[in-house]
Amino acid sequence: xxxxxxxxxxxxxxxxxxxxxxxxxxxxxxxxxxxxxxxxxxxxxxxxxxxxxxxxxxxxxxxxxxxxxxxxxxxxxxxxxxxxxxxxxxxxxxxxxxxxxxxxxxxxxxxxxxxxxxxxxxxxxxxxxxxxxxxxxxxxxxxxxxxxxxxxxxxxxxxxxxxxxxxxxxxxxxxxxxxxxxxxxxxxxxxxxxxxxxxxxxxxxxxxxxxxxxxx
Length: 216
Fold this sequence. Notes:
38% of the residues lie in helices and 23% in strands.
Protein backbone atom coordinates (compact mmCIF):
# COMPACT_ATOMS: atom_id res chain seq x y z
CA UNK A 1 0.00 0.00 0.00
CA UNK A 2 1.21 3.48 -0.88
CA UNK A 3 2.27 5.56 2.10
CA UNK A 4 1.28 9.23 2.17
CA UNK A 5 3.10 11.96 4.07
CA UNK A 6 1.43 15.28 4.86
CA UNK A 7 3.74 18.22 5.49
CA UNK A 8 1.98 20.56 7.88
CA UNK A 9 -0.41 17.76 8.73
CA UNK A 10 -1.25 19.05 12.20
CA UNK A 11 -3.44 21.82 10.79
CA UNK A 12 -7.17 21.26 10.14
CA UNK A 13 -6.83 21.21 6.35
CA UNK A 14 -4.06 18.62 6.35
CA UNK A 15 -5.74 16.65 9.10
CA UNK A 16 -8.94 16.38 7.09
CA UNK A 17 -7.08 14.93 4.13
CA UNK A 18 -5.18 12.59 6.46
CA UNK A 19 -8.18 11.05 8.19
CA UNK A 20 -9.99 10.41 4.91
CA UNK A 21 -6.91 8.84 3.34
CA UNK A 22 -6.40 6.61 6.37
CA UNK A 23 -10.08 5.68 6.28
CA UNK A 24 -9.71 4.23 2.79
CA UNK A 25 -6.70 2.12 3.69
CA UNK A 26 -3.62 4.32 3.31
CA UNK A 27 -0.87 4.53 5.89
CA UNK A 28 -0.54 8.25 6.54
CA UNK A 29 2.23 10.13 8.32
CA UNK A 30 1.37 13.58 9.67
CA UNK A 31 4.44 15.76 9.42
CA UNK A 32 5.34 18.77 11.53
CA UNK A 33 8.37 20.76 12.61
CA UNK A 34 7.52 19.36 16.07
CA UNK A 35 7.34 15.56 15.97
CA UNK A 36 5.63 15.35 19.37
CA UNK A 37 2.90 17.70 18.21
CA UNK A 38 2.39 15.57 15.11
CA UNK A 39 2.16 12.42 17.21
CA UNK A 40 -0.45 14.03 19.47
CA UNK A 41 -2.50 15.17 16.47
CA UNK A 42 -2.44 11.68 14.95
CA UNK A 43 -3.44 10.07 18.25
CA UNK A 44 -6.46 12.39 18.49
CA UNK A 45 -7.91 11.14 15.18
CA UNK A 46 -9.87 7.96 14.68
CA UNK A 47 -9.90 6.82 11.05
CA UNK A 48 -12.16 4.02 9.88
CA UNK A 49 -10.86 1.12 7.86
CA UNK A 50 -7.54 -0.62 7.42
CA UNK A 51 -5.30 2.44 7.15
CA UNK A 52 -3.23 4.05 9.87
CA UNK A 53 -2.27 7.50 11.13
CA UNK A 54 1.02 8.36 12.79
CA UNK A 55 2.91 11.55 13.52
CA UNK A 56 6.53 12.44 12.87
CA UNK A 57 8.87 15.23 11.85
CA UNK A 58 8.44 16.64 8.36
CA UNK A 59 11.51 14.83 7.03
CA UNK A 60 9.97 11.45 7.87
CA UNK A 61 6.68 12.45 6.25
CA UNK A 62 8.64 13.53 3.16
CA UNK A 63 10.09 10.02 2.90
CA UNK A 64 6.66 8.52 2.13
CA UNK A 65 5.75 7.35 -1.37
CA UNK A 66 3.50 10.33 -2.07
CA UNK A 67 3.56 13.68 -0.25
CA UNK A 68 0.94 16.38 0.35
CA UNK A 69 1.97 19.97 1.16
CA UNK A 70 -0.56 21.40 3.63
CA UNK A 71 1.60 24.02 5.35
CA UNK A 72 0.65 27.71 5.59
CA UNK A 73 1.40 29.39 2.29
CA UNK A 74 4.12 31.64 3.64
CA UNK A 75 6.21 28.71 4.88
CA UNK A 76 5.53 26.21 2.10
CA UNK A 77 8.51 26.97 -0.13
CA UNK A 78 10.97 27.10 2.77
CA UNK A 79 9.63 23.78 4.09
CA UNK A 80 9.91 21.85 0.82
CA UNK A 81 13.28 23.38 -0.07
CA UNK A 82 14.88 21.76 2.98
CA UNK A 83 13.33 18.43 1.93
CA UNK A 84 14.24 18.57 -1.76
CA UNK A 85 16.25 15.35 -1.78
CA UNK A 86 13.52 13.33 -0.02
CA UNK A 87 10.90 14.70 -2.43
CA UNK A 88 12.85 14.07 -5.64
CA UNK A 89 11.19 11.77 -8.18
CA UNK A 90 7.88 11.80 -6.29
CA UNK A 91 4.41 13.19 -6.82
CA UNK A 92 3.96 16.18 -4.52
CA UNK A 93 0.38 17.36 -4.07
CA UNK A 94 -0.03 21.07 -3.38
CA UNK A 95 -3.16 22.13 -1.51
CA UNK A 96 -1.61 25.48 -0.60
CA UNK A 97 -3.51 28.73 -1.15
CA UNK A 98 -1.97 32.18 -0.71
CA UNK A 99 -4.74 34.15 1.02
CA UNK A 100 -5.03 37.19 3.26
CA UNK A 101 -7.94 38.25 5.44
CA UNK A 102 -9.50 41.67 4.92
CA UNK A 103 -12.45 42.24 7.21
CA UNK A 104 -14.98 39.44 6.72
CA UNK A 105 -13.40 38.28 3.47
CA UNK A 106 -10.34 36.44 2.32
CA UNK A 107 -8.59 37.77 -0.75
CA UNK A 108 -6.13 35.89 -2.98
CA UNK A 109 -2.47 36.80 -3.07
CA UNK A 110 -0.39 36.17 -6.18
CA UNK A 111 3.19 34.97 -5.57
CA UNK A 112 5.92 35.86 -8.10
CA UNK A 113 5.28 32.79 -10.28
CA UNK A 114 1.53 33.31 -10.24
CA UNK A 115 0.50 30.44 -7.96
CA UNK A 116 1.75 28.45 -5.02
CA UNK A 117 1.81 25.31 -7.16
CA UNK A 118 4.19 27.06 -9.54
CA UNK A 119 6.32 28.25 -6.62
CA UNK A 120 6.61 24.67 -5.36
CA UNK A 121 7.40 23.38 -8.85
CA UNK A 122 10.27 25.85 -9.10
CA UNK A 123 11.55 24.89 -5.64
CA UNK A 124 11.30 21.15 -6.45
CA UNK A 125 12.57 20.71 -10.01
CA UNK A 126 12.93 16.92 -9.60
CA UNK A 127 9.40 16.42 -8.24
CA UNK A 128 6.06 16.30 -10.06
CA UNK A 129 3.57 18.84 -8.72
CA UNK A 130 -0.16 18.16 -8.75
CA UNK A 131 -2.72 20.60 -7.35
CA UNK A 132 -5.69 19.25 -5.38
CA UNK A 133 -7.84 19.67 -2.21
CA UNK A 134 -8.15 23.46 -2.45
CA UNK A 135 -11.88 24.09 -1.97
CA UNK A 136 -12.78 21.75 0.88
CA UNK A 137 -14.08 22.87 4.31
CA UNK A 138 -11.69 21.53 6.93
CA UNK A 139 -14.38 20.92 9.56
CA UNK A 140 -16.39 18.69 7.25
CA UNK A 141 -13.27 16.88 6.07
CA UNK A 142 -12.31 16.07 9.66
CA UNK A 143 -15.82 14.82 10.49
CA UNK A 144 -16.38 11.52 8.74
CA UNK A 145 -20.10 11.77 9.53
CA UNK A 146 -20.53 15.23 7.97
CA UNK A 147 -22.16 13.92 4.78
CA UNK A 148 -19.53 15.65 2.64
CA UNK A 149 -20.07 15.03 -1.09
CA UNK A 150 -17.59 17.36 -2.76
CA UNK A 151 -15.64 17.63 -5.98
CA UNK A 152 -11.86 18.01 -5.90
CA UNK A 153 -10.42 20.02 -8.79
CA UNK A 154 -7.08 18.62 -9.96
CA UNK A 155 -4.42 20.16 -12.20
CA UNK A 156 -0.91 19.23 -13.33
CA UNK A 157 1.28 19.24 -16.42
CA UNK A 158 1.93 15.50 -15.99
CA UNK A 159 -0.97 13.36 -17.25
CA UNK A 160 0.02 10.21 -15.36
CA UNK A 161 0.56 12.01 -12.05
CA UNK A 162 -2.71 13.87 -12.47
CA UNK A 163 -4.56 10.60 -13.01
CA UNK A 164 -2.78 8.96 -10.06
CA UNK A 165 -4.01 11.72 -7.76
CA UNK A 166 -7.51 11.54 -9.26
CA UNK A 167 -7.62 7.80 -8.55
CA UNK A 168 -6.52 8.43 -4.96
CA UNK A 169 -9.18 11.14 -4.45
CA UNK A 170 -11.90 8.86 -5.78
CA UNK A 171 -11.02 6.31 -3.11
CA UNK A 172 -11.55 8.85 -0.31
CA UNK A 173 -14.97 8.91 1.34
CA UNK A 174 -17.11 11.87 0.31
CA UNK A 175 -14.81 13.11 -2.46
CA UNK A 176 -14.91 12.97 -6.26
CA UNK A 177 -11.99 13.90 -8.53
CA UNK A 178 -12.46 16.39 -11.37
CA UNK A 179 -9.43 16.73 -13.63
CA UNK A 180 -9.41 20.34 -14.79
CA UNK A 181 -6.21 20.50 -16.84
CA UNK A 182 -2.68 21.84 -16.73
CA UNK A 183 -0.69 23.99 -14.32
CA UNK A 184 -1.82 27.02 -16.30
CA UNK A 185 -5.05 26.80 -14.25
CA UNK A 186 -3.27 26.84 -10.89
CA UNK A 187 -3.69 30.55 -10.20
CA UNK A 188 -7.43 30.50 -10.94
CA UNK A 189 -8.05 27.35 -8.91
CA UNK A 190 -6.13 28.61 -5.89
CA UNK A 191 -7.69 32.07 -6.00
CA UNK A 192 -11.22 30.64 -6.05
CA UNK A 193 -10.54 29.29 -2.56
CA UNK A 194 -10.85 32.88 -1.33
CA UNK A 195 -14.38 32.99 -2.75
CA UNK A 196 -15.33 29.69 -1.09
CA UNK A 197 -14.00 30.69 2.33
CA UNK A 198 -15.50 34.20 2.14
CA UNK A 199 -18.93 32.71 1.36
CA UNK A 200 -18.63 30.41 4.34
CA UNK A 201 -17.63 33.25 6.65
CA UNK A 202 -20.43 35.54 5.46
CA UNK A 203 -23.18 32.92 5.59
CA UNK A 204 -21.81 30.93 8.54
CA UNK A 205 -21.89 27.67 6.61
CA UNK A 206 -19.51 24.95 5.44
CA UNK A 207 -20.23 24.93 1.72
CA UNK A 208 -17.98 23.29 -0.87
CA UNK A 209 -17.63 22.86 -4.61
CA UNK A 210 -19.86 20.39 -6.43
CA UNK A 211 -19.98 20.65 -10.24
CA UNK A 212 -23.25 19.68 -11.88
CA UNK A 213 -23.34 17.64 -15.06
CA UNK A 214 -20.29 15.45 -14.38
CA UNK A 215 -21.96 12.51 -12.65
CA UNK A 216 -25.31 10.75 -13.01
